[in-house]
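Limitations
The structure tokens in this dataset are predictions for the assembled complex, not deposited experimental models. Users should treat interface geometry with appropriate caution, especially where small molecules or nucleic acid strands are included. An illustrative entry is reproduced here so readers can see what is and is not provided.
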Amino acid sequence: GIQVEQSPPDLILQEGANSTLRCNFSDSVNNLQWFHQNPWGQLINLFYIPSGTKQNGRLSATTVATERYSLLYISSSQTTDSGVYFCAPRDGTGNQFYFGTGTSLTVIP
Amino acid sequence: DTGVSQNPRHKITKRGQNVTFRCDPISEHNRLYWYRQTLGQGPEFLTYFQNEAQLEKSRLLSDRFSAERPKGSFSTLEIQRTEQGDSAMYLCASSLDGASPLHFGNGTRLTVT
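Predicted assembly:
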């Protein structure tokens, strides 16, 4: 299966700060999804992004599939951004999404 | 679109008992996935269905685990003779097809005492 490495593992930010989360994966993928797991455990879709850049409000994501990485940008962070961020590349067969151990983000007021 | 629904939200059981979880996917979603998540880890794939057919199973899915999706609608995950190591969050997700994003339910948290 695909190995997924996310960095940094933990991040503490002051409210209003910007951050970049990185996801490296070990093999070619046919798509990739970013999730936010809130403190109640719910996994919320952020982006479904095989390549290129997408933006949604304060968040944007870039995937460079040929170099096997994806980045998630969070600007003007808010306390509600706290939680764990997972990237999940989808393998070439399209049958499985593989998860890393995530980046745990804490935004302090 | 009411989202993916999982029941129960929490289950506490004694070691050796059998438990069954239910997942109702988003209507018209052909694919249904089961994942397991333990503390501090990302979700781990267990199995997935394309309509009613179970097409792939992880090695994590021992013979004590069985999943079904009769008629290609809701799915059940049964664990027989539970062990303390089965304690985890069991997550269900669905997608429209093999080229569409996953949508997760809220999960069922299992505690085996």
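Some entries come with short summary sentences. For this one: The two ends of chain A are 40 Å apart (CA to CA).
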